[in-house]
């Protein structure tokens, strides 16, 4: 609604409010005026971000060629190395990300996508320079990136969704320090993209078929996790089990992913069985240690004495060498 129309609308109702009710009427108007409003998209916003990108690039270049130090009387010995982003540039960029989030949360995905795209072009993609990354600024990186990817997903032609998402999801990104930890890493997974909105991904079943075909064969740790995640959503734990046994020790993340699912479902007997199977095919010592700990922890929960390979046969508290039974089978 135009400002003139809104003013006329308020004046009309104000004139018809009884005198004794005008204070409440004005209080209501004030409360509405303080409410968060849907932002108005302007092309100049993209221009402003583009200008900011040029300013950041100029600053980076001046730091690299040494002119920054002369222009700012920077002491090589007493001062810390300057940041590639100035404080003002960080604040400006954070504000633009906030505006993009506002568009996203109000359902204006096309506009949000345009802003996110321009902002992310400053960082680690084909337009980046000097290895800048989002850790330099104060944003919720994983959630914000998930929102951008959700915009790409929903604004793409269904036949192009998987391909367009793959271009921006960063298939080469490292996982956490634990290498095969599925959840404790910075870059979003499909579950984050879906959780970015209350509604599930539209056309998810068809997308997963295309997505699995695209990410299969990349071979990076992150690609393997994205593939396992998609297979689990599409085919359940049976699909993950099949993939883990196909990969064996060549890509041991399959067994780690499988064990994590069983842990979430608290099926401790199957955690032990799967961990024993994994330890027989995985040779990487660190991962064998991770798997052994999972097996021992599951044994503690079941009050079972776990003996690792090469030791004496396991003895349970009841004197038996058989695992307790009675657990229901996992849903497929």
Folded structure, characterized:
58% of the residues lie in helices and 0% in strands. The chain is mainly alpha-helical and 332 residues long. The protein has a domain at 42-61 and 89-129. Helix 7 runs antiparallel to helix 8 and helix 11 packs across helix 12 (253-264). It is globular and about 65 Å long. The protein starts with a helix and ends in a 31-residue tail after the last helix. 25% of the residues are buried.
Helix content: 55-70%
**Uncertain spans, ≥5 residues at pLDDT below 50?**
31-38, 310-332
Oligomer classification: single chain
How many angstroms does the end-to-end distance come to? 52 Å
What is the mean predicted local confidence, pLDDT?
77
Keywords summarizing the entry:
single chain, 332 residues, 58% helix, disordered C terminus
Characterize this entry briefly:
This protein has 332 residues and is mostly helical. Helices cover 58% and strands 0% of the residues.
Spell out the blueprint of helices and strands.
Blueprint: H1 3-15, H2 22-33, H3 43-65, H4 67-71, H5 87-105, H6 109-120, H7 141-155, H8 161-168, H9 190-195, H10 204-215, H11 221-247, H12 253-264, H13 268-279, H14 285-301
